[in-house]
């Protein structure tokens, strides 16, 4: 407990801080360069209808270019948000995903759905709704086939601007999904304050092994159904979790048990095998 160990601790924190700081700067610079060089990639994870086991849509998930050092979205998206690159990155995601959706709808099914993750920073950016509608019209997609996923944390401080934007999006026919429900800040009041159509149960809730967690999911899904929300279970990894989805009449599910997020070419084979009838 001497001064010495205190000093050691201090320099440990200092090194840790410097390390994190330089990592952040490195990621920011790389985001800038990769954006300029159009090097980011978009992968897609299929979303299955629980009842029919057909693919009803996909979720677009951004991927860092295939280079070292490699970063996961959970690390680089928050850094993109701090540095405001998220708007440019998000615009690229939107236009890439919509272009892809238009192609797949023409080839496979008009009702195929695309889910796109939207950062709260994007929602508050200038003319977000208008710019999104320009893209949607460009590819002649029906807004009903587009789900915008917003994480719970975006709604924590009852943000009037975000409520406003979500309302306009909802009026235009976009589906709004509350992502990662049950992870940390779940507040039932978000469900009534915001125009939400779909609730995505976070993967941390899918520990179907424990009896208590099964009861929680059971109670939650009953409540959500009574409130007319559609439910998507995320992170389905085991047969017992899959079974629970069927038992609880959960509408949709996604997870490694069926498929992780994969490149567009690989999704096509799944759509041929498993989508609604091909055109
Ligand atoms: P999210 O939107 O909740 O996406 C689900 C995450 O869980 C994805 O991680 C997905 O690959 C992963 N996942 C799917 N099934 C399973 C499973 O069965 N088990 C496990 N353990 N994980 C599963 P990913 O792609 O690393 O993305 C992490 C988060 O980064 C996303 O969480 C989302 O919040 C954010 N993100 C990803 N792409 C974008 C984007 O284009 N824009 C924005 N703003 N955020 C994005
Ligand atoms: Mg999501
Ligand atoms: Mg999620
Ligand atoms: Mg998440």
Concise description?
By secondary structure, the protein is an alpha/beta fold.
Structure overview:
The model has no long low-confidence stretch (mean pLDDT 91). This protein has an 8-stranded mixed beta barrel, surrounded by 4 helices. 49% of the residues lie in helices and 16% in strands. It is built from 10 helices and 8 strands. Strand 5 (175-181), helix 7 and strand 6 (198-201) form a beta-alpha-beta unit. It is of the alpha/beta class and 279 residues long. The structure holds ligand C2E and magnesium ion (3 copies). Residues 179-180 line the site of one magnesium ion. One of its GO terms (molecular function) is catalytic activity. Residues 24-275 form the EAL domain.
Question: Keywords for this structure?
Answer:
single chain, 279 residues, alpha/beta, eight-stranded mixed barrel, 49% helix, binds ligand C2E, binds magnesium ion
Rg (CA only): 20 Å
Determine the oligomeric state from the structure.
single chain
Tally of helical runs: 10
Main sheet strand line-up:
1-2-3-4-5-6-7-8
Biggest beta sheet summary: 8 strands, mixed, barrel
Helix content: 40-55%
Given the helix and strand composition, which structural class is it? alpha/beta
The helix-strand sequence is HEEHHEHHEHEHEHEHEH
How much of the sequence is in beta strands? 15-25%
Could you give the count of β-strands?
Answer: 8
Overall 3D form: globular
Q: Which ligands occur here? A: ligand C2E, magnesium ion
- N-C termini distance: 73 Å
Protein name: Diguanylate phosphodiesterase
Domain EAL: 24-275
């Amino acid at each position: 407990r001497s001064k010495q160990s205190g000093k050691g601790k201090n320099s440990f924190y200092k090194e840790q801080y410097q390390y994190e700081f330089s990592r952040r700067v490195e990621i920011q610079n790389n985001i800038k360069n990769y954006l300029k060089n159009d090097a980011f990639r978009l992968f897609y994870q299929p979303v299955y209808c629980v009842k029919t086991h057909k693919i009803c849509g996909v979720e677009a998930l951004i991927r860092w270019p295939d280079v070292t050092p490699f970063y996961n979205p959970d690390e680089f998206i928050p850094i993109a948000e701090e540095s405001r690159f998220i708007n440019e990155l998000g615009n690229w995601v939107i236009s890439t995903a919509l272009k892809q959706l238009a192609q797949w709808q023409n080839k496979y099914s008009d009702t195929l759905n695309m889910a796109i993750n939207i950062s709260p920073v994007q929602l508050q950016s200038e003319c977000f709704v208008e710019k999104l509608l320009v893209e949607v019209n460009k590819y002649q997609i029906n807004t009903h086939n587009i789900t915008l996923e917003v994480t719970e944390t975006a709604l924590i401080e009852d943000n009037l601007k975000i409520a406003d934007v979500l309302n306009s999006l909802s009026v235009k026919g976009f589906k709004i999904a509350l992502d990662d429900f049950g992870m940390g800040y779940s507040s039932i009041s978000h469900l009534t304050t915001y125009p939400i159509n779909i609730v995505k149960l976070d993967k941390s809730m899918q520990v179907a092994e424990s009896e208590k967690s099964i009861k929680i999911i059971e109670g939650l899904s009953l409540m959500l159904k009574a409130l007319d929300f559609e439910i998507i279970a995320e992170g389905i990894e085991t047969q017992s979790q899959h079974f629970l989805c069927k038992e609880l009449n959960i509408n949709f599910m996604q997870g490694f048990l069926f498929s992780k997020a994969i490149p567009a070419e690989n999704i096509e084979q799944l759509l041929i095998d498993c989508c609604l009838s091909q055109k």
